[in-house]
Amino acid sequence: MAIKKPKTTSKKATPVKRAANKPKKLSGEVFYPSKQVIAEARLKDWDKLNRSAKKDFRAFWEAEAKELEWYGKWKKVLDDSKKPFFKWFTGAKVNIVHNCIDRHLKTYRKNKLALIWESEDGKEHRTYSYYAMNREVTRMANIIKAMGVKRGDLVTIYMGRVPEIVFAMLACAKIGAIHSVVFGGFSVDSLAGRIEDSQSKLVITCDGSFQNGKIVQLKQIVDDSLKRCPSVENVIVIKRVGNEINIETGRDHWYHELLEQPIAEGKCETEVMDAEDTLYILYTSGSTGKPKAIVHTHGGYMVGTYSTLKYVFDVRDDDRWWCTADPGWVTGHSYLVYGPMLNGATSFLFEGGPAYPEPNRWWQCIERYGITLFYTAPTAIRGLMRFGESWPDKHDLSSLRLLGTVGEPINPEAWKWYYRVIGKSKLPIIDTWWQTETGAFMITPTPVVPLKPGSGTRPFFGQEAEIVDEQGKPVADDTEGYLVLKNPWPAMLRTIYKDDERYVKQYWSKYPGKYTTGDSAKRDKDGYYWIIGRVDDVLKVSGHRLGTAEVESALVSHPAVAEAAAIGLPHDIKGQGIHTFVMLRAGKVASPEVAEELRQHVATHMGPIARPEEVKFVDKLPKTRSGKIMRRVLKARAQGLPEGDISTLEE
Ligand code: WT7
Q1: With b meaning 16 or more CB within 10 Å and e meaning fewer, what string describes 325-354?
Q2: pLDDT digits over 301-327, tens only?
Q3: Whose CA is nearest to atom 27 of ligand 1?
Q4: 314 close to ligand 1 (CB < 6 Angstrom)
Q5: pTM here?
Q6: pLDDT (tens digit, 9 = 90+) per residue, 393-403?
Q7: Degrees to nearest 5, angle at CA 334 with 411 and 437
């Protein structure tokens, strides 16, 4: 093993004490942690901490908060006087960047690696210590300030997976600006919609990005989007691929040229923020209409991401952490950028995907950098499984000590492959259930918790979950129902940006006092939770969250389309694939060519991840008498299942 045992533990000195609170025998297929995993775990007694956090979740979170540095202490841990507008660590002064960077500069971590980066083609490598990170973030912060961005202003970040995206996020946070990262795989409609809604003054982008050897024209997409977005005064362009791009004088600025100017030089004080000040907004798809911007804060979000990563992945100083998510999704925000740096960890950022140029790309990186903690999505595992074991078997994966998964339910087959082939039947698989809205892990094991393939086990410390029926009454064990959360938590969303009403309606109205997740789930008699899927019109395509409404509006923007409906159907690799039903305008004729054109139209407007599997032409869509498309009925029909209650269906 590459891992040195912490000095405080030895095999003999830490017998596994299960006797006192030994759980009753668990039902079903259970994978218990090995003696070695327990011996190495920082937290050995899950039950004990769970019991005390359950008794007083405020005290649990306060103790966690005290492990970080604050400029000024809180008056109250939790202010719930205006719920559901909860406030955490009220009155406290802080900046998340102080804890991600500044704090470490006073210790030996100053010279520790914060970030390791490798290019898609594997020919370029860069590393940054915490000291170097501070230098780069400071330079970017100075430049952003010089562009006229002030505390509280919005900055949109639209980039590929390069170190500068991390600098950009942290630079915004450092000066108190609010970042809004848009996934670099989205296209014009998605980007323009998000810039328009947020009224950003500045966009930070790249000339392009690499995807499987091809160039994605990021700057071109920004140019097209900005035709609709007059709020944007400046665009900073990082040179990454060297393609021909348009530079609009006065508006667009090459980053490498800005770095040469005096404005980039000098110190930049980390802005003193209130704990409740907004750190970022992140757009995510909801049940209806346009994506909504979820609001996260400097104080609570910091405590939540720090603490969850510490306990759940047991991050230690000698670890090398790799979260394969894109920084454009919440997983990238919480566990690629903020969580690891709050823990002073070394993170790996990879520009490419798992299978380019060959399906061993990820396994090669694990070996090359000695990755110890690896966190990815079921869709990636299923995709890599398809290529067979010979690819991972070519590589020495013995540095790994914990594996993780997130984004959608993991099917037991993929779980077992991951466990056996990657984890050599020794490493726990940490299945973390959470959401853009929750900011941090909510239902998850820690390394010492016995696992059942496909279950995220039990709620994180201080949280209580419940499965309820339509009326909000808890259902019996092993019965499907709506998953709700009972306690507030520091990393929770504070609201939907500029839409408090929708925040209340969406998350807190169905079951007053409880947070509605939008997921259905079951709890078994051991208290283990099993997520089934979304109960709203949110799709999970390759773990990416998309709304049926967005796909439909992209389709309807095509001149041949009168009406459209989108649904998700099971897909072997992607989890869900997008299937669409289209009513053409009068005079338009259905054909395979038109279907193909429509699929391409959605990909061009929203991004390739939204390309439908199928476009089916129909004469009519099932609707309620009030005119709402009944996607549930379309879904049942497509799968040959009973249509359920169709009493509201129009004639
Ligand atoms: C939805 C949230 C925050 C992580 C990335 C996704 C589904 C997420 C799991 C899991 C089963 C999961 C849920 C949830 N989901 N993790 N471990 N097991 N389902 O964040 O894009 O906001 O999506 O992803 O349906 O509601 P997101």
Answers
A1: bbbbbbbbbbbbbbbbbbbbbbbbbbbbbb
A2: 999 999 999 999 999 999 999 999 999
A3: 435
A4: no
A5: 0.94
A6: 999 999 999 99
A7: 75
